[in-house]
Amino acid sequence: MDRRTLLSLGALGAGTLLSSRADGAVKLFSSPLLPQERAHRPLIVLQLSGGNDGLSTVVPYAEDAYHRARPSIAHKKDKLLVLDEYRGLNGELKRLRAAFDAGRVAIVEGVGYPKPNRSHFQSLDIWHAADERGRGVGQGWIGRACAKACAGDSNPNLVVHVGANVPYSLHSLEHPAATFVNPAAYRWAGGEHETDAYAKASGAAAEGDEMAPEKPVRREGESSVEFLRRVMNDGHSSSLAVRRAAARYQTPINYPRNDALATSLRDVAALVNSEIGSRVLSLELAGFDTHTDQRNRHDNLMRQLDGALGAFLEDLGRSERGQAAIVLVFSEFGRRVAENGSRGTDHGVAAPLFVLGHRIKGGLFGKHPSFDKLDAGDLAHTTDFRSVYATLIERCFALEHEYVLGAKYALVPVA
């Protein structure tokens, strides 16, 4: 940065953001907050890892090209939950179909991004960063949103991930995610010595402890002792609050038994309905990389997803805060149109995603990709995923979305 640029930045004054775009353009943003009062709608994000086959989730049963491309694994109309004269939901999504009919499920079709990447890791980085540069942008999109909407909030449970691996979307210098697999085993593992506390807080959990917090970051002007004491205090208060919320939660809703996703979603419901103040809660369901035996494997996943999400959505309806929550269900990409030689499908591009909640606008959104205009054998995207993010940023955080995403996108009116 030369002296002229530095002086220009100083003249902009506080409350203004200068954003450098990947194409070299520079855009100025004023205050990020929207005129209305800050939103406090909990955001729950469920990642379907592996690349969910959209054509087996929202099935274009009336498309002849679909049946020609998948002679072994195509779904017939009589096995589907028909939505209209063209498409139907996978037959295993019975509870979600009922929620769709009640206006609590929005299906956004053809979601993807320009110049798609078919690598699991690189595509996830793009989704998590909301930018084609992936991790090169710094913090994840949720981390950036929280930094603007929740500045000065020291709640260690502001962002929570239920699972072993924290997604990059939650990466934040100011609000690192509290992470656990089982809340009953979520314990702070610090000792009397600050150095030992720092090591534990950085992820070296004690034997048998499932705590795995994101590595804490020292704040500007914070001494080493202050930093270590803050880390230790945050860890103690976070783990205690999570354990209490999970242990005290009672619900009449019957979640599927012996199901990891259902158990995790019940824990999320407990945190949503508690007083710990979590704004974002994240989960993952893996197993969607269906290169072989897709029909059986994918139907089983749809059955698991339907049982867990159906119970969770019903549970959210029991409280004011739960009714305000918005649930995003996405995957890093769809699958190819044509089946492969192993009765599966390989990595593709566009796919539908779901937005659920009691105060959303349900229905079908976006445009189903054309089978006549394939992208190297894949469905080309018709909706940029950042349009969905933009909507969630404005509805859940009351932020001008371009302040977080670095550009303006058309909103998808799902909420």
In which range does the helix fraction lie?
A: 25-40%
What is the residue-mean pLDDT, rounded to a whole number? 83
Low-confidence stretches: 1-31, 187-214, 227-233
The SSE order reads HEEEEHEEHEHHEEHHHEHHEEEEEEHH
Into which percentage range does the β-strand content fall? 15-25%
Shape: globular
CATH topology (level 3) name: Alkaline Phosphatase, subunit A
Determine the CATH superfamily: Alkaline Phosphatase, subunit A
User: How many distinct domains?
Assistant: 1
Q: How large, in whole angstroms, is the Cα Rg?
A: 22 Å
CATH architecture: 3-Layer(aba) Sandwich
Quick one: biggest sheet? 9 strands, mixed
- N-to-C terminal Cα separation, in Å? 41 Å
Look at the structure and give the CATH class: Alpha Beta
The secondary-structure class comes to alpha/beta
- Care to count the β-strands? 16
The number of helical segments is 12
What does this structure look like?
- This protein is an alpha/beta fold.
- It is 33% helix and 15% strand.
- The protein contains twelve helices and 16 strands.
- The strands form four sheets. Strands 3, 7, 8, 9, 10, 11, 12, 13 and 16 form a nine-stranded mixed sheet that branches. Strands 4-6-5 form a three-stranded antiparallel sheet, with no helix packed on it. Strands 1-2 form a two-stranded antiparallel ribbon.
- Helix 3 packs across helix 9, helix 6 packs across helix 7 (224-248) and helix 8 (260-272) runs parallel beside helix 9.
